[in-house]
Specification:
Helix content of chain A is 74%, strand content 1%. With 345 residues, chain A is mainly α. In chain A, helix 3 packs antiparallel against helix 13 and helix 7 packs across helix 11. Chain A is globular and about 75 Å long. Classes of the chains: A mainly alpha (345), B alpha/beta (837).
Chain lengths: 345, 837
Amino acid sequence: MAERSAATLSKGPRFQVSKGLLTVLVSTVALFILCAIVAPTSVAPGPLGSMIPFAAILAIVGLGQMLVIQQAGIDLSVPGSVSLAAVIVSALPEIEDSRLLPSVIIALVAAVAIGLFNGFLVGFLKLNPIIATLGTNSLLFGFVMLITQGIPRMTTQLLLKIVGGSTIGIPNSVFFAAAVLLGVIFILRKTVAGRRFESIGASAPVAMVSGLRIKTHQAMAYVWAQVLYSIAGIMIAGVISEPNGSMGSAYLLPSVAVVVLGGTSLLGGRGLPTATVIAAVFLSQLDQFVLALGVNFAIRTLVQAAALAIGVAIYTVDWSRVRSLLQKFLSTARRGEHQTSLPTA
Amino acid sequence: MAQNKSDNVVMELRGISKNYSGVPALTDVSLQIKAGEVHALLGENGAGKSTLMNVASGTVAPSKGDLLVHGERYDALTPALANKLGIAIVHQHPAVLNDLTVLENLQVALPNSVFRGRGPESVGAELLERVGLKISLNLRVEDLTIAQKHLLEIAKALATSPKILVLDEPTAALGQDSVEILFNLIANEIAKKTAVIYITHRLAEVRQLADIVTVLRDGLLRITSPIKKITDSELLAQIVGRELKSTFPPKRPEPSGVKPDLVVKNLSGNGFTDISIQAYPGQIIGIAGVIGNGQSQFLKALSGQAESSGSIEINGEIKSTRQLNGKAALMPADRQREGVMMRMSVRENSALSSLKKFKLFGLLSRRKEVDQVHETLSSLSIKAPSLEAPVSALSGGNQQKVVLARALLSDPVMVLADEPTQGVDVGARLELYDILRKASADGIPVVVASSDAKELEGLCDTVYVLSRGQVVKTLHDGENREEAMIEAAVTSTTKVIRMERQDREQKLGNETAAEKFRRFMRGDYAPPVMLAVVMLAVAAIILPRSSTYLGDFNIKSMLLLVSALAFVAIGQTTVMMTGGIDLSTGPLAGFLVVIASFYFTDESPLTAVLMGLVTMALVAALVGLINSSLIRYVKFTAIAATLTTYIAIGGFAFILRPEPGGLVSRAIADALKSTLGPIPYVFIAAAIAAVGMEYLLRKSRWGWSLRAVGSNEESARQIGINVNRSIIGAYVVSSLFVFLGSILLTVQLGIGDATQGVTYTLTGITAVVLGGTSLMGGRGTYIGTLMGSILLIQVLNATVFLDLDQKWQYWLQAGLILIAAIVYSVARTRKTRLNKA
């Protein structure tokens, strides 16, 4: 009996492409083709070069947000922590290259501390993540003010060179984003902790029955997220020569948007890192495209909202029902069309 | 009409069939219900009793057949129509709302006519009195015991003097004294010529109450008979009915001279007391009983996931809860929720508990994992498209094999199977039995709980029958016949174990001052009081340092800021009461300011101003409709929906005002800033709005429904609340309050600027949270929100007087929200602990 079914149970493919990844990948390719045809300037090396670092930064922030959202949380402390990291690595070294590394370490240590704080509030004190991270965000902006005193500082040349430069023709920021993406995928898929983390996101009740430490894993989501925001903040300080204290504010909504567009549910579940990163590219290029078309900021915003709405609807709407309704509608419409076209025939 | 013999018939179900995705739950069932009679409905779990009653009470529409009620024919009923026809149902799981008080639960579920004439309190007290429920009407239902919730449910059903009363296992959770009261009530109803349908598992109750009895089995009506003309054994035969269809693996006789490998002594926990069992190597232990008599809780405790007292000894070693958790493999009864991760693959599901085994140099080796999972699944002869297929694509039986594979792969110290074959087809059942028997033969103690007595008879060596959390019978091999189990379960007369906490809560009538204080701290009005204390403290700190703090100018400017924030926050409170959140409030406020800047200029006549107000209100209402439609009809989460409108509204604002422009008329600004003493009129308006909304929230059907929906959507639906309407209404109300706030914001800004307003989303949420409203829905106060708004502005204002710079503004804001959230959350947790004790 076992023999027979052993023959029928296939081990399955080594790699699988999720629906989210496929959707966002196809949309992104389509967008670039559209750009090339309608607004070629948006894919010229210049605009592309300026888009890529910001897409990379958004991708990293998005990955952090994804880790939290896949545990059915949400992290509103993105602006504070991104800003704080940017401010730490630009203000502390006082344009002295040799002091860059210590300041980077300080930024990362701070990130871990903030993450532990958030994780403790949400995972162990069971605060609502919206409230907890809203509070933390405010706290962080206080520290941003403490460091900057409200004055933007020049960043170090070294950081500009590392983050803003390029290697073999590819902007370095791409390497950073790729490294973070691979790191996230590696930890999620190849370590015991990562796999447990994914399972808890997919179903906390099942994980509970299996005896996993749910609180700890949920708290760790906030720690990892903070580390990624911090990396993104450091990169901002390497792309913009005089980062001010509110650089991070522009990343809160997009960070949630790319996660949702990538197909990770706001109710928790499996996180889709690759799709999240591609969604970041999509959103950034969409901006470029609308910009190249010469329309104003307002239209760009509306396009973003529409992209988000469609992106969410792809997953929430019961499309098979819509299709059957549409077919019913079309078949009656076609019949009508037939009748009107008869006289001309 | 020729009415002779049938004039007593108040309801007739004719040829009712109901299919759930092709699987028949009821087939061609016909039933006559007569006035003044108790009609008992008997049958095992899954026989179709509850489905039939859901048809009768309008929550389920039949696939075939129709109903006659008072001589009128209906294809199907709705809950509202059933209410109107005088059909009342006592649900097996009480449809009560935890976040509402006892009185509010009665008021929201019953028509106003019940309370007309006399005060609601006296009517409510009388309703409780009738079912012998001695609790305060102002108690939150959350603090009630399960039995008290059942009594409340019964009180609700009786309140409307129903013509037809359906009771679905009403005594399952009741103590003996309450059961007697209930039986007296039923007798009263019968005397009033009410027709009663009584669903139960207990034959003793049927004998005591019923005039007519009907037995359902496998969705078919087996027999309807006057109770006097049928014996217990005939009834039992009809309930059980079937022959042993499955073949079971051979059993293992109790070996001599061998020590038992599983000894459980005097285990007590939540839902069960004093259970002792033992098993010898190779034996399978069965736990029998009607569902919900403590079996699941007992298995949870054995698996180390629930606290228990007593001892568990495996192979001579005493194991603590901590040692068992994760080591004793539990196959939960609720497979869909607790058994498998639906969207994860077969491989990921199987490997979950044994990931550490697949490590190679510290990392997971895909090859090791795939090989071992494949080997185990193959040995269980699972049928799946592939290892990478999502578990949701598998049949129930194969999903259960995945759960079993997870258990076996983890090298468990014990296997605990709760209803292992529920929803599993016959072929797979046999295989599951074989696997369990084999695991047992390999030296792993196996405990199986099942409501299918036939299964336990065939599979188990020793069976313990549980009733109300206690072992009522131990049946060893040879005597563990199905009939014996069912008889033990249905004839048992055990009392519900009185738990300690019940006594504690019974005292509520004459509680001590300390207890009163604790209850107040858990109540809705503790946060506003705490906020008031903090406000006074802040003022006390500043007063000695500043002479202008309480000056007219400062009070006025503070209260103007408070008013705008309070209106926005009052709107947000409404949405949060339903368990939602509205992120679009800030951008909407900004957008409305932009619109206002076109109408509120110096040149505009009064008509233009009015036009502007109407336009703003319409836009606000439209945004509320879009938000709620996305949530209710397109199934967006509240965050996704309002985030989308958040972004879009910002875009529209920039279309209208790419650059700031449109100076607001001086006259309008002065009018809105005018004061009564130092107090602006608009602040008085905001305060009146908060108090008015608070009144509606507590005293109107709208308010009860709003909180009911936030508290428990499913229960709210069952008691006939239109959930969609409540939620859509909440978002529209939220947007309209933003509209009121935006008028004040317009005056404060003085110019149309598309970049302004967005911050109001987060400050609004902060004010609501400070006020103690829960983001989970169901509880909160508008008064608290108003106080939260005042405190927030007061603290920001304080930084000016205390000469603190901007960082302190941030830190104080953070401190406020975090401390408030922690304090309120701690106040709530203490309560949960109390419930557990």
